[in-house]
C-alpha cells in the first residue's frame, strides 16, 4: 500500500477477506493437496449479498466458473463461496459440473442457506476428476468464523509462497465501510477479466449495476494488468460480495460516494495484484511498468502489458541487465502506435533512451536501478496523454524448475 | 527433411545459401562480436535478381529493415545482401539509417555493382551504435566465393549453437532448378512476417509478383509458425533472390510449375524453421504441434501457435510432464473457436483427451512419448476441416541463464 493510498483510506492492519462486517471463513486440510496442507474451505456472509464477478475468458472454462457465472447471471445475489485448491475441476466434462453443483449443495446444507446462493471456486491441476469423497467428508467439518480470513487465504494457495490479503476502511454517510480481500496466484497468470482467484467482501450496500461496473473498472486496472507467464487460467474468478452490514447508505452509480468506493476497491485490488506479481512462480523481483504519452488508453495498456510479458525483458530483469532495447522491442510488438523518434525510457530514475535512441548513460548507472526486490520502468511514447500501469516479475531458473514437473 | 519431401525433391547434401547457380558468399571476423568469431559478410548473385522479402512487423524496425524495405518497394530487384551479426543497428535513429546506407555502399563498391542493388541485414544487440570503423575495414576484405555459403551461415549466428542451411533441386522445363537458403535464430523469435534473418537464393527465373506471393505464402506456413520466446525481433528479414541462371523457363502465378516451386520453397523453409525451433535458446527438445478440425485456418494457426508459445507447455515439455490441461488452456486462450466437449489431444501417438476430458491413459504411457529430442502433439478441435502446424521448443533453465546477462 503506497503512502498516498493510506492517506485517503485507512489500511487495516492484519486485513483479510473477513475484515468487513458479517464475513466469515474457514478451511481445513481435506486431503486434496498431496502436501496435506489446507485445501478446502468456505467464505460466507451472515446475510445475503449483492454479488458480482468477473471470470476467465479462456474458452475452456472450469466447471466452477460455469456454475458461478450461470448463478450470478440468473440472480446477482450470493451468500457464500465454497472453494478448494489442489484440483481445478477443469476439463472434466459433465461430471465436473455435477461435482461443482454438489460442492455448492454441501456448503449450503452446512450453512443452512439456499443452494443457489453458493458459488464455487477451484484451483489446481487441470483434467483430474474431483475427489468428491474428500469434499463430502470435508465440507461439513469447515468452521466459518469472523477471524477465519487468514485460514482461508492459506487454503486457496497452490504454488504461492505466501498468502495475499488486504483490507481498507473509509466513511460513507458517517458510517465506517470496509472492503477486505484475498487472492491467490501465481502461475498460469495472465488474467483476462479477472485473476486466478480473488474474493472481495464489503459491508457497503451496493446497487447491483454499480457493483458490476465498479468491479469491472477496477479489475481492468489491477488484476488484468499483471502477468506472470502469459498463460490465462481456465479458472480465473474474482468475486465481490456486498452485504450492507455497515449500515451505511446504499451506493449507486450516481451516488456522491461512488468514486470513493471505486478508489477504495482499487486500492485493495492494486495491493493484491502487486502481491501476486511479486510472488509469481520463481520470481525474485516485482516489475512495475508505466507507459505514458500513448495515443489511447488501449495503446498504453497493450504496451505496458507487452513489456511485463516479454520473456526477454523478464530474463534481463532477473540478471539486472539494463538491456533496454528489449523494452522497446516489446512495445513495438504490442500493437500500440509508436513513433520511433519520440519514445523515451527510464529504468528507475535513470533515463536510458530519448527520441528512440540511447542517452549514452553508462550500463553501471542503469544497472544500479535494477537492484532490490522492486524495479520500475517508464516508457513515454510522446504521442498523447493516455497512460497505464502493469506489473510483472522476473523469469528465473526457479520458474522453469517449478513448472517442468508440476503434475508429476 | 522428411521422407515425403525427399521423394518429391532432391535434397542436396551439404546444401547452403550458395547452392543455386551464380550465388556466392563470404564472411570474416571484423571484430563486431566480442567473441572474435565471424560477424560480417556478403551474400551475392553473379547477376541481378528478382528480389522480394518479408520483414518484421515490429513498430521499431531496425535501420537495415527500413533501408531494405524501401529499396525493394522502389524496385523489386537486388543483387546482394551485406550482413553482420553482433549489432542489430536498431534504435539508433538517423545515424543508424546512415550507417546501413554506408554499409550497402561499401559492399556495392567492393562488388562493382550499383548501390541500390544491395540490401542490408543486421542482428545482435539493440540500441548500440554500429562500429562503422570495423565495417569500413571489413567489407573490402570479404571474399565472395561459390562455396562460401557455410562461411556465411556461421557469420550470421548470434546465440545459435549451429548453422542452419538447406538446399533442394527439382526440374523445371527440363532444367535443374535449385533453391538454397540459410537462417539464424534463436532468441527474440516469434516471427511476424519473417524470421530473424533468412536468405533464400534460387537460380529459377521468377516473375516478381509470383515471387512475392510465393514467399508470403511459404513464410506464413513456416517461419511465421515457429516461436522460441514470444518476442518478435526488430530485425526480422527474409530475402528471396532469384537470378534465373538455371536457364529454366520463367515461372509466374499461372505457370504449370508454380505449385511445384512453392512446394520446393516450402520444403527448404520448413527445414530451416524446424532447425531454428530446435536450436531455440537453451532448448533441448523440438515441439511440433498439429491442430486439426478447426473452424478456420486462422483458428488453426492461432491455436497451434498458442500451444508452442505457452510458457507452461514449454516448461512441462522440458520436464517430460504430460500435463495436458496446459495444452487445452493454451488453445482456450488462443481466440480459436472451441467446443470443450469435442476437443481431443494426442501426445505423440497416445491419445490423452477425448471429448474434452481425460482418456484415463496412464501418465507413464503419455510421458514415454515425451522422451527424445523431438515431441509431437496433435489437437483435434472436432469442428471443421482447417489445420495448421507450428514448431517451438522447451523452456529450460539454460534459456534464463543465457538471457539474464545477454548484454553484459
Summarize the structure.
The structure is a homodimer of 408-residue chains. In chain A, 31% of the residues lie in helices and 27% in strands. Chain A is an alpha+beta fold and 408 residues long.
Order of helices and strands of chain A: HEEEHEHEHHEEEHEHEHHHEEEHEEH
The radius of gyration of chain A is: 21 Å
User: Largest interface, by Cβ-Cβ below 8 angstroms: which chains and how many residues each?
Assistant: A-B, 73 and 73 residues
How many DSSP-defined strands of chain A?
15
Question: Could you walk me through the main structural features you see in this protein, from its secondary elements to its overall organization?
Answer:
The structure is a homodimer of 408-residue chains. Chain A has 408 residues and is α+β, with helices and mostly antiparallel strands. Helix content of chain A is 31%, strand content 27%. In chain A, the strands form two sheets. In chain A, strands 1, 2, 3, 4, 5, 6, 7, 8 and 9 form a nine-stranded mixed beta sheet that branches. Chain A has a six-stranded mixed beta sheet with strand order 13-12-11-14-10-15. In chain A, helix 6 (208-221) links the parallel strand 8 (197-202) and strand 9. In chain A, helix 2 crosses helix 3. The two termini of chain A are 37 Å apart. The relative contact order of chain A is 0.14. At the A-B interface, helix 3, helix 9, helix 10, strand 13 and helix 12 of A face helix 3, helix 9, helix 10, strand 13 and helix 12 of B.
